[in-house]
């Protein structure tokens, strides 16, 4: 499998093969530039499929790893894959979703969504149940937090603000493996969420949500919220009988007058909430070291990282990604997103979550050409 990372369109001449798939990430507000670069790539490689996703900021495989100065606002991973080994499917919102795959075949997948929606949850359920189990990964498109705008996805020249893009990959030809990792442990006992509205928790155990939480952990200050120091473990009422690890959900805001808590992820009445405490530094480092287990010769990777992870670690984030890059030692591109999809354990199902590093490693299987 031939591949190349482009952090600058001026590197196009370094692509000495004919890519069939190009995956790109563009920082929100740089859509016009991304279109220009994509047109240049399409002119050079007319038969290529180009897909992409907006980001709060980009991540790549060289120092400083995070685009701190907006110098690499459009990045690409060019890949030569067999045309018959993958398929792309676009799902517009508000339509009945059905994934078109061949019977008796196993697939992996990359999922890119313009925003959170019930349709995204439906796609995840379909992949969990019938198609990919725990071998699918993805992100909700990112945008600048200061703009309060939603992101977009890109599909062969078109920007989509209300849809989901699915890149299905034949497991006979390619392996797509990885994991999601956060930096918290659950503590205490499950609390039942008894009243919600969309992303907003109104009541916990029939008490005002904010009162209930602050009675246990103290005041949720602006500093705690802005640094994402107090996420929650939320288990969907639909998944109470599953044994997989609980995903983390980050606080977006609170309303002191209404005594509500708003998350980055939708919650439902009957969901269970558990408080979180940070990992020890030793556990954080061990976790980063374990990412190397998914890598073999010839692998490439995609790194889906939450804006809340970036906000939590601040200036330390490039240091953590540097350690990850050293451990995996393969080409990768990534983005800061508004939500990530992946399994928290290799035996678990892939789920939607917040505040993670989610790594997806793509490898051509041995003996395949």
What does it look like?
The protein has 369 residues and is an alpha+beta fold. It contains 7 helices and 25 strands. The strands form 4 sheets. Strands 13, 14, 15, 16, 17, 18, 19 and 20 form an 8-stranded antiparallel β-sheet that branches. Strands 1-5-2-3-9-10 form a 6-stranded mixed β-sheet, with helices on one face. A 6-stranded mixed β-sheet has the order 6-11-7-8-23-24, covered by helices on one side. Strand 13 and strand 14 form a beta hairpin. The N and C termini lie close together (7 Å). The model has no long low-confidence stretch (mean pLDDT 92).
| Poorly predicted tracts of residues | none
Sheet with most strands: 8 strands, antiparallel
Alpha-carbon distance between the two ends: 7 Å
Shape: globular
What is the helical fraction, as a range of percent?
Answer: 10-25%
Strand content: 35-45%
Structural class: alpha+beta
Strand tally:
25
- What's the pLDDT, averaged over the residues? 92
Tally of contiguous helical segments: 7
The protein's oligomeric status is single chain
């Amino acid at each position: 499998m031939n591949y190349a990372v482009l952090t600058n369109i001026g590197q196009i001449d370094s692509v000495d093969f004919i890519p069939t798939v190009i995956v790109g990430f563009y920082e929100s507000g740089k859509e016009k530039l991304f279109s220009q670069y994509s047109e240049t790539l399409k002119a050079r490689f007319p038969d290529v499929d180009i897909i992409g996703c907006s980001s709060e900021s980009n991540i790549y495989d060289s120092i400083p790893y995070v685009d701190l100065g907006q110098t690499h606002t459009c990045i690409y991973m060019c890949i030569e894959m067999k045309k018959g080994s993958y398929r792309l499917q676009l799902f517009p919102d508000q339509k009945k979703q059905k994934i078109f795959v061949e019977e008796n075949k196993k697939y992996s997948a990359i999922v890119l969504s313009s925003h959170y929606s019930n349709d995204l949850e439906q796609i995840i359920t379909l992949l969990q149940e019938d198609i990919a189990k725990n071998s699918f990964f993805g992100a909700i498109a990112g945008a600048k937090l200061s703009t309060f705008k939603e992101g977009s996805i890109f599909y062969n020249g078109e920007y989509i603000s209300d849809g989901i893009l699915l890149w299905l990959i034949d497991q006979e030809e390619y392996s797509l493996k990885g994991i999601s990792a956060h930096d918290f442990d659950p503590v205490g006992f499950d609390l039942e969420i008894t009243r919600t509205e969309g992303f907003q928790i109104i009541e916990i155990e029939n008490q005002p949500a904010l009162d209930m939480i602050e009675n246990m952990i103290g005041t949720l200050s602006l500093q705690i919220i802005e640094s994402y120091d107090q996420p929650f473990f939320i288990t969907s009422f639909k998944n109470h009988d599953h044994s997989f690890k609980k995903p983390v959900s980050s606080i977006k805001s609170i309303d002191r007058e209404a005594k509500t808590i708003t998350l980055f992820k939708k919650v439902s009445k009957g969901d269970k909430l558990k408080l979180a405490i940070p990992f020890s530094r030793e556990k954080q480092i061990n976790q980063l070291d374990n990412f190397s287990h998914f890598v073999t010769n010839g692998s490439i990777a995609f790194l889906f990282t939450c804006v809340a992870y970036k906000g939590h670690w601040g200036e330390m984030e490039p240091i953590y990604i540097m350690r990850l890059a050293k451990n995996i030692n393969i080409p990768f591109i990534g983005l800061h997103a508004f939500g990530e999809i992946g399994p928290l354990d290799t035996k678990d199902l892939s789920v939607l979550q917040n505040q993670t590093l989610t790594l997806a490693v793509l490898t051509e299987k041995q003996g395949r050409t």
